[in-house]
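cache lookup: miss for this entity combination. No prior model stored, computing from scratch. Input as submitted by user K.M.:
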Amino acid sequence: MMKTIHDSSLDEWFLNRTSTSQTAYKQAVGAAVNTVQTQFSSLEKPMSGVQADFLSSLLREDTICPEEGLHLDTVLYEVGQKVLGHSVAVHHPACVAHLHCPPLIPALAGEVMVSATNQSMDSWDQSPAATLLEERMIQWLSRTFGLSPQGDGVFTSGGTQSNFMGLLLARDHYAWTRFGWNVQKRGLPPEAREMRILCSEAAHFTVKQSAALLGLGEDAVVTVKTDERHRIHLDDLDQQLSQLYGDGLHPFAIVATAGTTDFGSIDPLPELVSRAHALGLWLHVDAAYGGALILSNSYKERLQGIEAAHSITVDFHKLFYQPISCGAFLVNDVKHFNRIKQNADYLNSTEDEELGIPNLVGKSIQTTRRFDALKLYISLRTLGRAQFASMIEKTINTATATAQMIAKDQRLEVINPVPELNAVVFRFIPEMNHPDMPYSKWQDQINHEIRHALLASGDVVLANTKVNGNVCLKLTLLNPRTTLEDTHAILDRVKKTGKRRELQKGEWNQHASNIGSASYHAELL
Ligand SMILES: *Cc1c(COP(=O)(O)O)cnc(C)c1O
């Protein structure tokens, strides 16, 4: 061991083997835990309902970096009051807007280790055991999703990055195999303007975003109609494909969605696999939302076909209940990463690679990267597959029963009577007409207002979406602790709020310009 002279002056700021440092660490993390606990023990609503202008006055720019620092306890207390107190409580059963999950407690313990050890996943000398554990996790994922033994992948910041990587590899693979063109070296091929990606109109917006970032442009994405269950319409797909080939264009990838954001619909994967294989297209499956079904013996057959995809997106910060961020990108053959690989002499030199030293930087578009695999590892080991599966199944059952409840209600209309996953889309039905508005517009408006009023009250956090141009409300029931009693109470609030608004319609014109303001909501509630 090397002898060093210990400079103790910074022990209170950095972890090391001294007791000063360890005490400081325990106190700091303990104080943060206490602040969180205080927050949770007084938590009644998913949102404080505070208005943006008030919050904005609480958080002042000129106090951020004082000349002399404050005591950590003071800072944490303040953060508890001003920030945590006005954060959305994703753990609350009435927080049901987005694909935004309550994180598992074992994963939170994992986060402590991830941050304290601060491994960086780009090179072996920055993350030896972490590199190997991430590799094992990827092997487990590959096997679980049924990929071939050449399957590989990498942890990502989430679905946006994973979808981008899928289309990046698809683009480069096509340019190379079809035109003998190396995009990494030469940039886009002359045929780039003719390259096309197909996905359903319910696919995630990041498919278009990726096409734009990849230099192909959003117009390179051809959207296919959906069927009555919001899945890609195969006849329309076939028609669009023959049109593209007829026009001399170059379709090169199909993006299938396994769990659409609004309805949780799963595209017919086996049918897409057979088309992709017959036509030599890359099949990317965006399973950001639905990928977790693979853990459930009752539901995993819905993902059948995914094993034949070229690449897969799976998010762990959704139905795997991980703290943000945590996702993975999987590919059916490790060799595809060669199209984007970089060798940096300081990270993964060719000499190191010849020695067989594993470095994950070549598989990622990130360089410095968090050890997010650890929290998922800890969660899977602690809960086990069966517990994960039962939580996921529970959310699907709650969603199904909630949809049935809505279907029976005269004042509500369910848009997806049989939820494919755990999202339920519905609308309030106003009974009275509006004096100066067509009924459909009035219905849109009242549904919009219901969401805003509930948000401003802080009692329920619901989402809005549009279906065939109509404003709808959405419950995304990711939280296994949200029960049927909770959804019943939420629907009650929706109806009460809608009815109250209906009764005020005579005064509508007077108030229309005040929507969103505090006084308007105070009046409403
Ligand atoms: C959430 C989601 C994404 C985006 O993933 P992020 O983790 O938010 O980057 C992409 N596709 C689908 C289907 C999603 O649900």
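stored under new cache key. Residues 508-525 have pLDDT under 50 and may be disordered.
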